């Protein structure tokens, strides 16, 4: 990967407008993350992740944050954590990331 590729990848990660519009169906989430659809639905039933359903019988769709949660949980399960422990650890990681970005946003606003 070249420096330009890394820079382009970083720009996509920082494109909050794009990320806020990123919503995909459960099949695509399964393909992207390698987590079976049945497992994704189970995690949703347990309240670990949340889909965006538009009506009864509609396809489950997931936003960027929930896709990120699925990836983190899968990594933690692969590392040997139980589902409950992985869910708790994932929530802590998400909270830490959010705090860091809030601090960055605050600093950015103070510089303007």
Write the layout of secondary structure elements.
Blueprint: H1 3-13, H2 16-21, E1 23-25, H3 26-33, H4 37-45, E2 61-63, H5 64-78, H6 83-111
Antiparallel strand pairs: 1-2
Helix pairs in contact: 5-6
Can you describe this structure?
The protein has 112 residues and is mainly alpha-helical. The chain has one domain: Multidrug-efflux Transporter Regulator, Chain: A, Domain 2 (Orthogonal Bundle), CATH 1.10.1660. It has six helices and two strands; from the N terminus they run H-H-E-H-H-E-H-H. The protein has a two-stranded antiparallel ribbon. The protein is globular. The chain starts with a helix and ends with a helix. The mean pLDDT is 84. GO terms for molecular function: DNA binding; DNA-binding transcription factor activity. Keywords: DNA-binding, Repressor, Transcription, Transcription regulation. This is Putative transcriptional regulator.
Provide the descriptors you would attach to this structure in a database record.
112 residues, mainly alpha, Multidrug-efflux Transporter Regulator, Chain: A, Domain 2, two-stranded antiparallel sheet, 2 strands, globular
Task: Give Rg in angstroms.
Answer: 16 Å
Helix content: 55-70%
Indicate how many domains the architecture comprises: 1
Report the CATH topology name.
Multidrug-efflux Transporter Regulator, Chain: A, Domain 2
Count of DSSP helices?
6
Name the beta content range. 5-15%
Distance between the termini: 34 Å
Mean pLDDT: 84
Largest sheet: 2 strands, antiparallel
**How would you write the strand order of the largest sheet?**
1-2
Overall form: globular
Helix-strand string: HHEHHEHH
Please tell me the CATH architecture by its name. Answer: Orthogonal Bundle
Briefly note the structural class of the backbone: mainly alpha
- Could you tell me the number of beta strands? 2
Low-confidence stretches: none
Pfam family, one: MerR_1
GO molecular function, one term: DNA binding
Organism: Desulfosporosinus orientis (strain ATCC 19365 / DSM 765 / NCIMB 8382 / VKM B-1628 / Singapore I) (Desulfotomaculum orientis)
Protein name: Putative transcriptional regulator
């Amino acid at each position: 990967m070249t420096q330009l590729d890394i820079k382009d990848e970083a720009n996509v990660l920082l494109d909050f407008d794009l990320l806020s519009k990123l919503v995909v169906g459960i099949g695509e989430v399964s393909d992207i993350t390698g987590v079976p659809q049945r497992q994704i639905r189970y995690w949703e039933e347990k309240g670990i992740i949340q889909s965006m359903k538009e009506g009864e019988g509609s396809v489950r769709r997931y936003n960027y944050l929930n896709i990120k949660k699925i990836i983190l949980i899968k990594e933690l399960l692969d590392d040997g954590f139980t589902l409950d422990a992985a869910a708790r650890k994932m929530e802590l990681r998400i909270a830490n990331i959010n705090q860091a970005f809030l601090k960055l946003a605050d600093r950015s606003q103070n510089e303007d």
